[in-house]
Amino acid sequence: MFALRTAGWYGGAAAPTLKIVREADMLPSENAPYRVDLHLHSSCSDGLCTPGQLVAMARDAGLCAIALCDHDSVAGIDGAMAAGRGCGVEVMPGIELSTMWNSHQDLHLLGYGMNHHDPLLKTELADFRSFRRERNRRILERINDRLKGERRLLLDFHEIQESAGDTVGRPHLARALVAKGYARNIEDAFQRYLIPCNIPKRFFPLDQAIRLLHGCGGVAVLAHPLLVSNDRSHWERLLDGYTLLGLDGIELYTPSAGESDIEFFREQARRRGLIVTGGSDYHGMPVTTPVPGSGFGSFVVPGACLDGIKEALTARLPSYPTVTSSVASPTNSA
After folding, report:
1. Which of 6, 100, 49, 20 is nearest to 280 (CA)?
2. Exposed, middle or buried: residue 188 (CB in 10 Å: 0-12, 13-18, 19+)?
3. 91 vs 56: CA distance, rounded Å
4. Cβ-contact 253, 299 below 8 angstroms
5. Checking phi first, is residue 147 left (phi over 0); if not, alpha (psi -120 to 50) or beta?
6. What is the DSSP string of 233-279?
7. pLDDT of residue 117
């Protein structure tokens, strides 16, 4: 069996070079599956690990490829790609956008393979990051009001920002609460402080977000559908509408999806010509996901998901270089 691999994704204006690689050449070992994780978050949004740390963890977990999908940010992609080149882990550019459509708020849309240096994309994301910074400042003000009422020392935003890096997210606030001894763990911090002190998010209209991703060469995939609804008849109607908006795929393999869920959404994707992807949604919090590529039970994301994304990208951008039949060396021999 053959599968698409890239010699390098967008690092600027240049398009990627695609090659055909035998699937057997991509296996970490003779007995291990070709595994990937296409939904990871770093400290450039609301994750707790740096992009480089995520790549190293993926290598240690035996993953051949990952996608960095930070919320409303592409700041970590170049660093992740550089780290990946250094240790044999392929890194697909990605992003996760918060969207809304009709009565559904906070629909998460994953973008893959886009030119992450696209000027319009960077402008749109800068607006969202500005809102995110102000939102988290206001959340911290509410937390400090609560801490003041508890006669405790207040948290300092600049200290949290210094440790967080590019963007302060709610997990960084939670970690600061744990470090001060105000919460037992991250989950306790959310229950006691982050959730009661929350400020509503800002959302892209779903159709606008899909057009934005398509405009910079990417594909648009709906993330973790089970977090939106468990009503399968409702999902059939939603997917009909979202496909008309230009949706390219759906995240099939997630830690919370059971076998029947996977079979249902796989069939829905097949009927509509959508690609399927998968990922752990790793944020660096062991209470939810121990390491990238892991989950509950037998959670595994097969490499065919990455191949599907690449085929969709090639179909969307006919100006890509012609696919050749040369066989490249494996990107991960661990």
Report:
1. 49
2. middle
3. 12
4. yes
5. alpha
6. HHHHHHHHHHHHTT--EEEEE-TT--HHHHHHHHHHHHHHT-EEEE-
7. 96
CA separation for the pair 279, 192 (Å, rounded): 28
At 79, is the secondary structure helix, strand, or coil?
Answer: helix
47 — phi, psi (to 5°)? -90, 165
CA end-to-end span of the chain: 21
Low-confidence ranges of the chain (pLDDT < 70): 1-33, 165-166, 285-298, 317-334
pLDDT score recorded for residue 321:
36
pLDDT score of 125: 93
H-helix or E-strand spanning residue 38: strand 36-40
CA 70 to chain centre: 6
SS3 111: strand
- Which of 277, 213, 218, 262 is closest to 65 using CA atoms? 277
Rounded Cα distance between 113 and 168, Å, is: 25
Distance (Å, whole) CA 293 – CA 57: 9
Nearest CA among 166, 200, 171, 8 for reference residue 73: 166
Which of 21, 40, 22 minimizes the C-alpha distance to 295?
Answer: 40
pTM greater than 0.90 (yes/no): no
CA distances in angstroms from 332 to 85, 158, 224, listed in the order given: 10, 39, 27
Q: Which one, of 96, 230, 219, 116, lies nearest residue 169 by Cα?
A: 96
| Residues 115, 113: Cα–Cα separation, whole Å | 7
